[in-house]
Design goal:
- The chain is of the alpha+beta class.
- Helix content is 25%, strand content 27%.
- It folds into three domains: 2-39 and 84-161, no CATH class; 55-59 and 163-369, no CATH class; 482-539, SH3 type barrels, CATH 2.30.30.
- The strands form six sheets. A six-stranded antiparallel β-barrel has the order 4-8-7-18-17-15. Strands 1-2-3-6-10 form a five-stranded mixed β-sheet, covered by helices on one side. A five-stranded antiparallel β-sheet has the order 9-11-12-13-14, with helices on both faces.
- A hairpin with a 6-residue loop joins β13 (247-251) and β14.
- α1 runs antiparallel to α3 (131-154) and α4 packs antiparallel against α6 (336-358).
- It starts with a strand and ends with a strand.
């Protein structure tokens, strides 16, 4: 269905039997082309951490070798091909607009700096007439940046998920168990599993796995917007897994292609896994026994090795995602109970989706995007920096004037070489007369009384102080008031306002420093302040 109105054209589509519909703005053209050429920005991916290779005891693993999903292009569920095409088109358009946004933000920052320097001393005295023009230039740059930001927001696919109360309740439990899972001390992506020759290695483990520490986080900024939010499982050897209420989204990091999997087509397996942990056992993991470094088939120590030692066996939780189309991912969590609880919550939610698809009643749920719930484009723009006055305009001339004054004073106090004292030897032994007369001058008459001998004195030239400009006092460094803990994943915003730009996300359990409190908002950080977050997301340690 296509809706045409004063706010533009919108495409609304529904998938029969899934309870899903999605809305996309069709009349969201790109802003006018900028006069200057677009700059291409290439961001190098961070180097992956060195994988560790612990050994695991036997578990019902059907896969041996690399654990990796198939190509993203082949993973999409047939019923979601239409939504996939919209997402790929929106992602391509968003990538084109990112270069425009970077240039517009740079122009906005330069115009802001120029305006603020003219509004402050000392330039305000000599350039007062140019302030209105600088303010107009900044307003124009701000408007241009907001236009580009609004165009980027228009590329967001707003997915409306219609679920009944039972399904929404099941999804709420998925969110709670995911938050608990994200608080585990260690979470790994298992990328390979190889069988162990126990006879040759004399090891108690049945297989060796390769694992890489990865993160779990709630999705804040995504190409897809839903009412229930989403949760991300980072993937060390493929696209990250984003789970939304109703479908899973996988993005190919290399080609920016997207795959969508109906949650009803996804198989989620969770079970406990006994690991022979050669590294430090995480603090939230349960140690269920010990194994010998060199052992017999029955687990007893091999007496042929005199330096044999025991290794702790930790109980971890394993999570596996599978589909018939080729999704194949495995994760390990240090807290087994959190992994099992998440798997159980996902299973209950999938059952609610299947039950609702068979029901004849129309599914009713909150709309993910409505005509009145428009996001602020300013949230995509960075916070404007603090700009000081152009004090160098005074400091540099003052320094030059001081150097010139010092040179002039040095010339005035320098001694005259023509008036240097001259020593004249007297005929009387041991007596010398010092004269200050110039050589060749007419001597005094003989009738004049003899002058008493004078002692020469050294006169040092006077040193004049150098006039230096007064140093500009540095801005005061904020001091932490107290320490607090993040009890729920918290957004750090640029100002104490829910509509302010989000600067970063602080995971649950992080210890932060409190620098300032303003109403129900608290400025937090580490050694320096990051920004503002709501007090309800923090607790005393």
């Amino acid at each position: 269905m296509i809706n045409i109105g004063p706010r533009g054209s919108r495409l609304t589509m529904g998938l029969p039997g899934t309870g899903l519909s999605y809305t996309h703005n069709l009349s969201s053209p790109r802003p006018a082309e900028r006069a200057s050429p677009h700059a291409e920005i290439y961001l190098e991916p961070p180097a992956p951490p060195e994988p560790v290779r612990p050994e695991a005891e036997a578990q019902p693993r059907p896969m041996v070798g690399e654990i990796k999903s198939a190509e993203v292009a082949s993973l999409t569920s047939p019923d979601l091909e239409g939504l996939k095409k919209l997402i790929n088109d929106a992602a391509h358009q968003k990538a084109l607009l990112q270069a425009d946004l970077a240039e517009a933000v740079a122009d906005r920052r330069r115009a802001w700096r120029k305006l603020r320097r003219r509004e402050q001393l000392p330039l305000r005295v000599v350039m007062k007439s140019s302030i209105p023009a600088a303010r107009a230039a900044f307003d124009e740059a701000e408007e241009e940046a907001l236009k580009v930001a609004a165009a980027i927001m228009a590329t967001e696919i707003k997915v409306e998920i219609e679920l009944d109360d039972q399904a929404w309740s099941a999804w709420a439990e998925v969110r709670r168990t995911f938050d608990r899972l994200s608080q585990t001390a260690k979470f790994w992506d298992v990328t390979s599993s190889v069988a162990v020759d126990r006879f040759r290695t004399r090891s108690a483990a049945h297989e060796t796995v390769t694992r890489t520490p990865v993160g779990l986080r709630t999705i804040i900024d995504s190409i897809v917007a839903t009412a229930g939010g989403g949760h991300r499982f980072e993937n060390a050897n493929g696209g990250d897994l984003d789970i939304f209420p109703g479908f899973m989204l996988i993005r190919d990091k290399a080609s920016s292609d997207y795959a969508l999997i109906d949650l009803r087509d996804l198989t989620v397996e969770t079970y406990g896994c006994r690991f022979i942990e050669r590294e430090t056992v995480p603090p939230d993991a349960e140690t269920v026994g010990h194994a010998w470094h060199k052992s017999n088939k029955d687990g007893s120590p091999d007496r042929r090795f005199s330096e044999n030692f025991q290794i702790p066996i930790a109980l971890y939780g394993e999570i596996r995602f599978k589909t018939r189309n080729g999704v194949e991912e495995a994760y390990n969590a240090s807290h087994c109970g959190s992994a099992l609880a998440f798997g159980n919550a996902i299973s209950i939610f999938q059952g609610a989706l299947r039950r609702q698809a068979k029901s004849s009643k129309p599914a009713i749920g909150p709309a993910a995007a409505s005509e009145g719930s428009q996001k602020d484009p300013g949230a995509l723009l960075p916070v404007l920096p603090r700009v000081l006055g152009a004090y160098e305009v005074i400091a540099i001339p003052a320094l030059l004037a001081g150097l010139l004054a010092y040179g002039a004073v040095s010339k005035l106090v320098r001694p005259n070489p023509t008036s240097a004292p001259v020593a004249v030897m007297s005929s009387t032994p041991g007596v010398s007369i010092v004269s200050t007369e110039r050589p060749g001058a007419i001597p005094a008459p003989a009738s004049s009384p003899p002058q008493a001998p004078s002692v020469p004195s050294a006169v040092a030239p006077a040193q004049m102080p150098v006039v230096a400009p007064a140093p500009v006092p540095p801005p005061a460094t904020p001091t932490a008031i107290e320490k607090m803990l993040v009890k729920q994943t918290a957004n750090v915003r640029a100002s104490p306002d829910r509509s302010a730009a989000s600067l970063k996300v602080v995971p649950t359990g992080t210890s932060v420093s409190v620098f300032e409190k303003r109403g129900s908002w608290i400025k937090i950080g580490d050694t320096a302040a990051w920004g503002w977050t709501h007090a309800s997301l923090l607790q005393q340690p």
